[in-house]
Amino acid sequence: MAAVVSIGIWIVTAFLTILLFFVESFLTIILFPFDKKRKVNHRQCFWWSSAVIGFNPYWRLQVSGLENIDPHKTYVVVSNHQSLADIIVMYQTRMQFKWVAKESLFQIPFIGWCLFLTKHIKLSRGKFASIKQSYRKAAYWLKNDISVVFFPEGTRSATGKIGEFQNGAFKLAIQEQKPILPIAISGTRDAIPKGSWFFKTKVKGKLTILPPVETTEFQPGDFISLKDTVHGRLASLIT
To answer: Measured in whole angstroms, how far is the alpha carbon of residue 105 from the centre of its chain?
Structure first.
């Protein structure tokens, strides 16, 4: 029975992702002169996210803190990272944003093509020129009123506990004078099977949006203090 259910989950998820790609492709063509920020494309990921979560009987997601998002503000969004499922659940914020995502994700059929169509930010780890370019693009979107999402751990946590943060997102937030929006994700580490295609474990995920941390009082050299503040707030919620 578990095998049948797992096959069904993968088929439905694949169908929804392929459908998302064709919807985004169509919208890119017809709205190309009018939607340079690809906001309409981005909104398609909201129904995709809800459908992928809703059709998986092993997943339950609790979302809290949506009142901390001001739709009229632009944020540097900082979240911990446990699983590829984090990408799916983050769309439950219903925010307009651009990911800073590793280059390999853009190479995955359909889901990577959707990232390209929606103008997310590609990052090649270990390549200084790529890292510098990704931060220039992030700054560009922030200046144009689009939030940017960072996973500052740099990689998925192997234990579920929050790791050390890299500095870039915090330097950028101070530079652009944009508030940090911390988002804590828990319970997703086991949402996608590792080493197997069977879904066996029921997962209760949590997406918690914390109050923003204003950066207007921080000087450029204060990024460590800002980083530690945000890390501490997120770590208190990650078990």
So the answer is: 12
